[in-house]
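Researcher: Please predict.
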Amino acid sequence: MSISILEKSRSSPSRDGKHIPPPPIGNDQMSVDLADLEKSLKHVLSFIETDNEIKCRKNFATFALTQVDKVEVLTKHELHTLSCGILMSKDEMPFVYSDVLEITDKYCGKAMNITMVYKSVNSLTERGFVAEVDPEKHIKNPKKPRCYIVTKRGGEAFELAVIMAYHLTSGTSEAA
């Protein structure tokens, strides 16, 4: 392409009304165009969202089927135990078994079974969600009960479990 042709193509056409008609200015034409555009975009988005939702569910299903032996969801008792640990951590205190009993009694109206407390703490410790700490730093008790703190990983697991529980109980889904 020569320079003269390139310069011509840049300079023409102009918007002086001679070469390109000006866009419609009327409000009616604009509202119709916008309404059509919005309708078209919503239609396209519905396909994209549906397609992404299907892909996402398929990925979740594949993960659940292939990783079922490696991933375990928190039980109700583990979630209660983590909740107690997190409430105690507000005061920068570790929690002990009796704390779980007292806090579940206060918030749930019935103390958690002591056997479930032991099992939950043991399971959470094995999974790295809570860690045992030295009781002498925190508790002046001659019996020196076992003290635990919620780890960063435990806090993340707790948050995800609460989000899932909230979603299932507050949504309009029949899954809850």
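Model: The CA atoms of residues 104 and 170 lie 22 Å apart.
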